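Supplementary Text 2. Reproducibility record for the structural model of the 313-residue chain.

All settings were left at their defaults, and a single model was retained for analysis rather than an ensemble. We include the record here because the model underlies the residue-level annotations in Supplementary Table 4.
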Amino acid sequence: MSKPKSNNKKTISVALTLCLVCSVLVSAAAVGLKPSQVENARLDRNKNILVAAGMFDSASDTNEDVAERFKDFDIKIVNLNKGNYLDDEALKAVGIADRNTYDISQATKNQALSDDLGSNDPASIGRKPKYAKVYVKNDDAGKPEMVVLPIQGYGLWGTIYGFLTLEGDMNTIKGISFYEHKETPGLGARIEEPKWRAMWTGIHSYDESGEVATGVSTSGSKENWVDGISGATLTSRGVSNMIQFWLGEQGYKPYLDQVREETGQTIDNTNARAKPVSYKKLGQNPTPHLAQQQTHPVTELASIAPVVHGKEA
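Retained model, structure tokens:
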């Protein structure tokens, strides 16, 4: 009995047909799911904005709550160098088609929409967008009640993305959130913990002379500075550099100064008073063991400067 002859053409034809069918199915799935992915990304961004604004309760709030509360915010595009808002005509002139879809992370990859920071890059982001998207919630009188500012900077393993919220005085920090990072779980990733983020609430961003006066302390408590995270000194330093960069002259300071001037406020008449916040004070009757952990003792890494990578992830 003779063996059946192999038919290479038939084998290759079947393989190519299977590959084609699989490719079509994968492509169709990718195209079909794209709207859901975009919507989920938008919802997650909006949720983190509400987290930074203190308007989200993870235990009870739904996606519908997020959508409803986010309607309270106006999306504005700010010229970071001049501090003013761009209207629709100005947006078109600089090449921004839609304020809602404008992405500052993508803008840093566009030379027309960003500036090379060169050696003056404390947040290690490489390029700074010329225009930033901010989220403004006004009170009943039409004055800013709070403003949510996107922030980003290099931590230990990659770029950290988050939001910083200032109260209507454009000085008092209302909240902070981080939604994307590559920090070490259990160490640097603790920047996401509500307890650590709560330490920022109520402290001042600027001193009476208008200089940035907050950050993350890795060498003892300082007024208006937040204690660093034990064992995550480089992440803490990265967050500190990020906060100081975006509150500084290269970041949102020209914009915040202008809003403060337009609303008749000055640094020395801000609503809240500066107050140091200690991590251990936020604990609820911690055990001695936990209390020792939560005071974030200074480690040997405290004096080491963060690794400079300086480029977008």
